[in-house]
Amino acid sequence: MTWKPISGDGGSGGGGGGSRILIKRVKPEIGIRVVRTEQVACDVLSLRIYGLTPFPESVEHFWQRVSAKNGLIALCMPLATVVLNGVLGDLAKARLVFWRWKNPLPGCRAFSELVNTDPRIDVAALKAKHGAFPRSPKDQNALWFQIYKKHAEALTVSEGHRAYLLTRDMASLSLIFALVFPLCALLSPIQRGVAFIYYAALLGQYLVVATSARNYGRRFVLNVLTEESHSK
Q1: Which of 27, 50, 190, 230 lies at 20 to 30 Å from 214 by C-alpha?
Q2: What angle, rounded to 10 degrees, do the helices at 155-187 and 192-229 form?
């Protein structure tokens, strides 16, 4: 801010002194201040969108809420998964995967349905070793399991077994969640439409995982028969 002298307007001649007016110089950083203000506003808005806040008191409150509620849920989820996985036995899990009540294990159809679906298997070699194939599901599973014990350490067999057990357990848990969680959602203040969408998503997850487990189970059975047909 500066004082600038200006001349008089026809006053006394000669030594008449000029008056001064106050001139305010506007600094060019006003534009910078506007840009910085807009940038800060955008940063704050971005934090709000992601559920955060730039104020220390709110951040502390948010962290306490996460620690108290979500932290407890995150701690209990692994324990609940282990407990729920043990609720169902192997036979019940096989029923949920293969959708068969009687003889659901894949080995029960090893020689009547599956053996002729894999070109890797030398069917003639299997018949030369074990004679005529059994026809009853229980006898088929018993013979298949006897063969499995011989080749359990083979890489294709062990990996196939692991993949089948993993997806089988995932399918069982998916169905349990699809039955229990939507019921809890209906009893909560959540809207019915949201609960229905959640149920449909969980049911779709179960169908996909069960199909994957079914394919892995059949492949596991076929891997055992393949190893047996080419072994000496």
Answers
A1: 230
A2: 170
Judge whether 152 and 158 are in contact, CB under 8 Å: yes
- Spatial CA neighbour of 118 closest among 213, 212, 224: 224
Token pair of 200, please? 């449909």
User: DSSP of 166-195, one letter per residue?
Assistant: HHHHHHHHHHHHHHHHHHHHHHSSS-HHHH
CA-nearest of 51, 227, 232, 77 to 154 is 227
Residue-level pLDDT, tens digit, the chain, 232 residues: 544 454 444 444 444 444 444 444 444 443 434 334 444 444 444 444 444 444 444 545 544 554 555 555 555 656 666 667 677 888 999 999 999 999 999 999 999 999 999 899 988 989 988 888 999 999 999 999 999 999 988 899 999 999 999 999 999 888 888 887 766 666 666 667 777 787 888 889 999 999 999 999 999 999 999 998 888 7
Do residues 175 and 84 lie in contact, with contact meaning Cβ atoms separated by under 8 Å? Answer: no
| Cβ(92)–Cβ(168) below 8 Å | no
What is the CA 184 to chain-centroid distance, rounded? 20
**Could you tell me if 54 and 43 are in contact, meaning their C-beta atoms sit under 8 angstroms apart?**
yes
Q: Compute φ and ψ for 131, nearest 5 degrees.
A: 75, -155
Measure CA 31 to chain center: 47
Among 105, 231, 122, residue whose Cα is nearest residue 164 = 105
pTM of the model: 0.64
* Residue closest to 177 by CA, chosen among 112, 96, 117, 106: 96
